[in-house]
Records
---
Amino acid sequence: MTDDIVRGPTMRPSLAQAVPALPGKPQVGMHELLAFTIAGECYALPLTAIQEILKVPPVTEVPRAPRDILGIISVRGRVTTVLDLRRRLGMHERPVTKHSRVLLVDDGDEIFGVLVDSVLSVYRLLPEEVELAAAIAGDTAEYVRGIGRPKAGRAFGRSPMGRAGLESEDDIIILLDAASLLRSHRSS
Amino acid sequence: MSGSDDTSDGIREEFLAEAGEIVEVLSRDLLVLDQGQKEGKPDPDLINDVFRGVHTLKGIAGMFGYHQVGAVAHALEDLLDDLRLGRVELTQDVLDVLFDGVENFQRLLGGASEAGNAGDMDLSSYAESIERVSAVHEPVADALGGYDIDPGVLGVLTEYEEHRLRTNVEQGVPLFRLHVSFSLASIDSSLEELKARAKPMAEIITYLPSMGETSGDAIDLDVLLASRAPLSELEGAFGSLGIELAPIARRPVRATQPPPASASSVPPSPGPSADAPATGQRAGMSPPPVPGVGRLTMPPRHAAPPSVPPPDIESAGGAGQDALSLRSVSNSVRVDIRKLDHLMNVVGELAIVRSSVGRVTERIRGRPELRQVATDLHRINRSFERHLEELQNGILDVRMVPLKQVFDKLARVVRQVARDHEKEVRLLVTGAETEVDKLIVEELSDPLMHIIRNSIDHGVEKPKMRELAGKPTIGTLAMNAYQKGNHVVIEVEDDGAGMSDQKLLETAIRRGLVSEEARGDLSHEEILNLVFLPGFTTKSAITDLSGRGVGMDVVKVNIGRLGGVVDLQSEQGIGTKVSITLPITLAIISALIVRVCARTFAIPLSAVQEALVLDPAAIRTVEGREVLTLRGSTVPLCRIAQAFDFAPPEGEAPHKHYVVVSALGLRRVGFVVDELQDQQDIVIKAMGKSLSGVRGFAGATDLGDQRVALVLDAPALLEDVLLGSERPRATGSVT
């Protein structure tokens, strides 16, 4: 399980600081990522953008809000908007499960909650393990920073369920860009 | 955010707070000066205070790099220096420029706090107006109360001497001229003696060598004295020095410009013009032929400071003043309101923790073996609750500021508007010490300013009209504030013309706000309330004062946003009173908690007129829209479930609904809900920027069960219903 990095609503300055020593020394240019799953696919956000991982608290829906906004929650007294990443990425929504988590993501302007199916683990990828977005096209290209292809043994911890994690060396991680993922909501 | 940013932010805020305080004091002082000017006796100390304030402001603006603020302060400082030295007379025009200065400071500082740096403003026209009033340098000889003092003498007075002279004249101290002859050998000691003798009863303003009949080894001095002592006493004091002493004659007529010489009858007096100097007569003091030489030939001048202790203006502008201003004079602390908001949030969290503990206590109370623990826990929790309440009240208390802050600003508006309209208005303020939440005070100035403009523009009549109506020519505008339970009431009352039902109705009909047929059905109160409708304005010609495109409807909406209500009373010929009732704090408001389709919403109680059970039999439809007939009047209905597109709840629809009636001016809407839960004090919290485009909600609140409830924005929903608009949907960005 990944409970070692999942916390309840307690103060923590930065997740990155809370991650214990990882295999392999950090290097300049290395990508530090938090990987999670959406509809069986593996996505990741830069670790530095993530403030906290929450179990899903009761969410209050906001009528008339954009469709990909799940609702609002209260995080230590602050009303926080929760984005449903499934809807955002154009996938079918599904009910919250016990593995669902809300990531608190700071894009520098507002702190969002981002609902994901489950959290996998922290990865450190070398620059050569990441293929940047320029080469990829498609609907989601807007939020995609690149594709990560970790070599065996780079993952820290095991995937929570086995089925949705990185089972073979051929699996890829889709690297998302926090700012562009959240941006369009502020202009609306 | 990097550390250095924090520091510079902190410094900026420090500057803004300090500058803001100085400007507020300036504004207050100017108002008192204005009053003094009108009564004909402006307090010179006050001019000095203003001068010092501006000087300090210039200093700190320079220190923090706010050059525009510094430039305005600098220009004003020069003007104020002229004022305090009497070179420029304090007139209403000069006061206008000074008040404009306060406005400019506030605009610059306001721009600075928003933009993060001093906003750029075009100040050239302001500089010109300072220039204009400063340029009105009165000739030196003016306003000396008609004293015949030779202009040649005046021409060589130092600024300080001249100021002392004027001050004494202003204070009505008689002036004397003393003619002494000292031997050149002993002039120093003789002068000392003269000063010593003068000190107890007189102030020596200046002494100048007299060019009259000077003998070889003696020097004749003309001394200008100010003293309240009778001539005989002065003669007694100076007599032994072998001196001629005479009071300086004063012309009976007080005029700003010295009247032509013919007007003065008593002594033959030289006119004020410099080209007709006195020729040694008694009345005038003989001037040295060349003023500069006169100064230079005065041996003791450099060693002879004024014999009276320097008045306090001497310290103005000195380095000591700057040092003083850096030291904190009060033991109060300036706190960013956001920090208090944060503390308030923490208290809110603690309240939630407390109720959780309460629930746990209830659970273990059921276990016999733990009963004692439960009792203890309950007791501890109660004590926790008490302290929490104290903490909450303490924080609320810190947020409170006196209404004086906004009233002072408004006093300036009153003066300005009255002057622009050639009306005379006396402002009476009571209850300025009443305290309200800081945020409310901030939001109050615009609505109040608008109400005041209305009162003076539309209400108070011109002096002539008032005279005809048998009223005192000076109109009265009263601003009263007082606390009433958990609310603060602010009243703006004038003794003007009042509002005419007839006129109001005609305007409303012309603007299509009321139908011709309905005119007979409206009561006096309902007609008055017409002014709160959007698009209503009684003056057909739009003036720049009241007709700024905002009407009383905006006032109503803005006050409503603060959880307040506006009431209007007016009697034709007697006056108009606008009363604003506000909650004391925005941090906590009372709300009605309702349920719709298993969802919880809060409606601020300030927006609720009444709540009742919906009687399906009373529903009618008008043009396909549901309305309710409520005690004879028609109230459109808004079903919250439909407004928000909620799917009907599973199972049977509730057999009973409730209507929450909300009012905006004359217009009312009934919001249909499933259940009235209770009334609760809530803390409204803003939703994130991402949801700011969603219409219909004033924010969200934590009800204490970990769930967040939305707070309905009743005015916005009401408007949607009345405009019959398609419900605006946030066009979010599903790409």
Note: The interface with chain A takes residues 345-346, 348-349, 599, 643-646, 685-691, 693-697, 699-700, 702, 706-710, 727-735 of chain B (CB under 8 Å).
---
Amino acid sequence: MYSDFLRDYLIVVFFGILAFAVVGAFIGLASLVRPDRPSEAKNTAYESGVDPVDGGWSQSQIRYYIFALLFVMFDVEAVFIFPWATRLEEYGMFGLVEMTIFIFILALGLGYAWRKGVLRWV
Amino acid sequence: MLIAQEFVRPIIDWHGVAPELTLLAIGAMVTLVDIIWNEKAQRIIPTLTGLGFLAALLPVLTLWSDRDELPRVMWDGAYVVDEYSLVLKGLFLVSAYVVVLLATNYMHDGDYYEGEFYQLVSASVVGMLVMTSARDLISIFVAIELISIPAYLMAAWRKRDLKSNEAGLKYMLMGVFASALMLYGMSLLYGFAGDTRLAAIAPALRSSESIPLITLAVVFVVVGFGFKVSAVPFHTWAPDTYEGAPTPLTAFLAVASKAAGFVALMSVVIVAFPEQSGVAEPLLWVLAAVTMTVGNLIAMRQTNIVRMLAYSGIAQAGYMIAPLAVFGDVPSSAARAIVIYLVIYAAMNLGAFAVVITAARKTRSGEISSYGGLFQYAPGLAVLMTLFLFSLAGIPPFGGWYAKYQVFLVLVEPATTAGYVLAAIGAVNAVLAAFYYLSIMKQMWFMPEPNGDHTRVQITPSLQAALAITAIVTLVTGVLPGVIPDVGDLVVALP
């Protein structure tokens, strides 16, 4: 029984070793094969071919973050409403009530943001 | 090509899901009140949320009185309301109510966001209610995320304090990591069984030879839950998170959130893995033994009371995992012992946190040394703390002894060497734990007040209520342990 148990868990150990070995092998192999000629231009951030301006640690407006969050809310709404709308007749009254509840809960989020003054671009 | 399948309206047992729906409605209502009255509503929102938790308790009670109808099985066995889930729903709602009582003054005096805090607590508790009934990998995962995500936010609630930011970030990173591990295990399980329902996974795992895939799945799922219940060696987030988070939330994490992790672990292990007990039991045995011992050893060296309670909570989690180490032979008694432990642990640990929060209103400190002279200026508080600490140490006649007694009974029931050894480790740990619980008592009863300040501690009505509820439950469960309802067997069959 105990040898069975140990054999079972040996698999887990092998699995872990394999995970490290595969990653190590790929990175190690790549570092052996690839040419190594570092240059100034190669170390700059890649900005789709345009020369980057300033450092990577610049501050951005916190307001964009809040709008991004609100966007997520509408995005989720759309993801669920579109499939529902294509089969609207099939779902009938049941689907309508379910969707109303769903939209109501999301609307609460919007109402909350509105009330707390998040929507104002100060 | 699109195949138009006819839509079949799912049959919903409205009475069965009434507790969850009630709480959802209450959460929406609290948000609505916050939207309409904004600043003016902040004082009534805690009361409203607290009453909401009690209101959601009503359908739980009606379901309990209608016990002949149980189990109510919905969605082809993915959602089950049985005695086990009802007892736990009651536990979560009452614990959440006590947490609201603890938070009321803390949140107001500290000038933290109030309305949002209670809305997030309600969301988290909805997840816990779902968790008790979830018998399906997907609903378990959704429930665990619904519990955790609001908790990540609330851990960072004291946003002007760096420690609280650290608490939230660490909790989130480790929680997400655990979720990933758990999902990986679940995906292996689904790949093997072809079904997400736990009761359908169990027969698929029936096999005499060892299959590596199953072992991997079991290990990943158990490790994932190990993070959620802060079992050693997956406990590293707990002390920092507990110390940095607002103390009422720490109480919530240490009791309700941890209990929810145990409910998930219990449902999955007992319902889905009975055929693989040979694989799961040794892993859980090691987890239980290591968790108890390491938790207790580190707790001894703590100087901050919240950190000490965090490590003591880790050690207590070890006792709660222990019955699962023999679940293959005695699944029902294991579930029963864990539920009893969870109920009593919730009462005594919330009580200890209530005393910590109350004392901190005067001392403004979480150091154990600041408890000197507590008996002189707040004798009632010192007596209550003694009660909770005795209970945590497992000394009769307070609840804790009965919880530990049940765990030991289950461990010796199958009469195996593994069970006896784990029981012995548990007994040694009970002695270790008594050491640090008693050292706090020494501080409270025999040491002088460090600043010579003997003004009384002001105990607000909500804290009085919290202390009273937890003290009564701790006492009653110790003297009359029969009052804890029997959870019966978990429903394991498909409809």
Note: Chain B touches chain A at residues 6-7, 9, 28, 31-32, 34-36, 38, 210, 212, 215-216, 219, 278-279, 282-283 (CB under 8 Å).
